[in-house]
């Protein structure tokens, strides 16, 4: 139970998890402004389209620019975190969030806006690596799963807060300044994240890796350890670091690691081929396509965030009891049914949606979000962290993260292009991908619940 966790440890984990909250907020906040941005930057899109692409292609690039930064950030923050420390990188990430939020709100032209969103993407990518890494390293093993899960919970909470913020700002009727306020409000949580990080200690594991054992012992005394013996804990960390340094010479892309590599790549690809980021980024547009007024579309988007939060919480509570594979199966079935219903409704209603058609799309999207929170959204990072042997786990998680963000950028970039032709075609494509996912889960995906890494390695061979 959380009451058994030392107050200083829980406080530090919650503060570091604000990186996850800003991750979710920054990911979803553009959904409220993307339609306005399409109108504002239309002259720029026309100019660019004269040389290459289409108007929708360049609008998709504008929306996906943050995700391009995320791809870079998920790769770029690993080594600096090792050299300068996890806490130092979290300070930098908080600063990048502030710069991006303020810069996006005050953007003077399209190029400036894209650069600011890309900077925000760097922060998101960094958060996805450093926040859970920091929490893992300050936590005793017996509490590590729950404290690392705080980051995932905060990502979903951040998405809901972004939708809520967008809805409230839209209701204020601020005119041409509305979209700027949507981005600018992120400065507040980013500033709080930066200030609160002064209360957090440096990672004891990182301190030991730099030879600062005395400071590490003081922090371990404050945060707690598994045995209560700080000297023993330090020795175990030193042995672990030695094993990791020895394993760095191990070649990652080799035949013996093909099974976990293929599993990590495929689960990350299927995660985005569901269309989840298209829904998160373009939710108000999807609801407007289905006949909702702008205010109703914003309110429906808020419902998306709330449902994702609830079903993610449910999944995190039961994942160790029911297992990863069962959640993926039920999530895949939910995907297929909901996407099929939404696609059929778009085909039958075309551009003139009846009241019934609009409600079917709303319910379908809500079921889709519930299926994601209960299945893929809860399973992906747990599964990827479990399938790789200790000596290549960091590289395996990096590969999974890179694949996830690369596919997220592709899906978000192409959605407006394909949605221009037919909403039915887009959701049918996502549904077919989820049928393939279900087949893959049933036939190929192993159950990792309660299976040791050594047993998994034997299965690969």
By CATH reckoning, the class of the largest domain would read Mainly Alpha
Mean pLDDT: 85
Most strands sheet = none
* Low-confidence segments: none
What is the percentage of strand-forming residues?
Answer: under 5%
Number of helices: 22
What does this structure look like?
The protein has 461 residues and is an all-alpha fold. The protein folds into two domains: 200 residues, Growth Hormone, Chain: A; 208 residues, Up-down Bundle (Growth Hormone, Chain: A), CATH 1.20.1250. The protein has 22 helices and no strands. Helix 6 runs antiparallel to helix 9 and helix 17 runs antiparallel to helix 19. The chain is globular, with a radius of gyration of 22 Å. The relative contact order is 0.13.
Short description:
The protein has 461 residues and is mainly alpha-helical.
Distinctive features:
Growth Hormone, Chain: A; 22 helices; 461 residues
Helices and strands, with pairings:
Elements (H helix, E strand, L loop, with lengths): L6 H23 L4 H7 L1 H8 L5 H22 L1 H7 L1 H20 L4 H29 L2 H31 L6 H7 L2 H10 L7 H6 L3 H11 L6 H18 L10 H16 L2 H14 L4 H29 L1 H26 L5 H20 L1 H12 L5 H27 L3 H21 L9 H8 L1
Helix pairs in contact: 1-6, 1-7, 1-8, 1-10, 3-4, 4-7, 4-20, 5-6, 6-7, 6-9, 6-10, 7-8, 8-9, 8-16, 12-13, 14-19, 14-20, 15-16, 15-20, 16-17, 16-18, 17-18, 17-19, 17-21, 18-19, 19-20
